[in-house]
Design goal:
The chain folds into two domains: 1-98, Tetratricopeptide repeat domain (Serine Threonine Protein Phosphatase 5, Tetratricopeptide repeat, Alpha Horseshoe); 115-200. It is built from eleven helices and no strands. 41% of the residues are buried. It is mostly helical. Helix 1 runs antiparallel to helix 2.
Length: 200
């Protein structure tokens, strides 16, 4: 489960057959954690958060050591903006598997949402040590640094992230404009030039 907007699902496409197949897969014994993960993830992306939580919790009851389900549970709580529950699950993940990238980033997202930018930035840096080319995580680090008033460092991270293409450029421009210590540009071209890339 990751932070996916419900709009990435085509509402015209009937997903009931897929949901039914995944539900059937979760009845297999011994339990298959990936079946619970796939079902919970899909339900979460559909915005059916209560059902997604129930699926992840059932999977964890059957397979308590399946850390991937704990990660999924953390993200679905984060997506429904239940930061307390999300933080609890990500902290459990961090204690059990501190090297997990998704757990590290998930906890960083929660801390940033709660305004603890220094702690979030430390986690984002750790995650980038594992995946240095991950533009989304670098964007998140850049935003944290801007929120902390570390303008030069934050802008440097956004410049690196913006090189990832249009899908990274626009979030980088938004980050510059939306943080208290950011910058506002009159045109997208000017913002892109500031970030050192060509506007699409």
């Amino acid at each position: 489960m990751r932070k996916h907007p419900p709009s990435d699902i085509d509402p015209a496409q009937s997903l009931e057959p897929k949901l039914a197949a995944l539900r059937n897969a979760t009845t297999t014994r011994p339990a298959q954690p990936l079946a619970f993960l796939a079902l919970g993830d899909l339900l979460g992306r559909l915005g059916r958060f209560g059902e997604a939580i129930a699926v992840f919790e059932e999977g964890l009851t059957l397979e308590p050591r399946a850390i991937v389900l704990r990660v999924g549970l953390g993200y679905v709580h984060l997506n429904r903006n239940d930061r307390g529950a999300a933080r609890h699950h990500f902290e459990v993940v961090r204690a059990a598997a501190p090297e997990r990238y998704d757990g590290m980033v998930g906890l960083a997202h929660v801390l940033a949402a709660q305004g603890d930018y220094p702690a979030a930035a430390d986690l984002y840096r750790g995650a980038l040590g594992l995946q240095p080319d991950n533009a989304a995580t670098r964007l998140s680090l850049g935003k944290c640094l801007l929120e902390m008033g570390e303008r030069e460092a934050g802008e440097a991270e956004l410049r690196i992230a913006a090189r990832g293409g249009p899908q990274s450029l626009w979030p980088a421009i938004t980050a510059l404009a939306s943080t208290p210590h950011g910058r506002v540009f009159l045109t997208a071209d000017a913002a892109a030039r500031f970030l050192g890339v060509d506007a699409p």
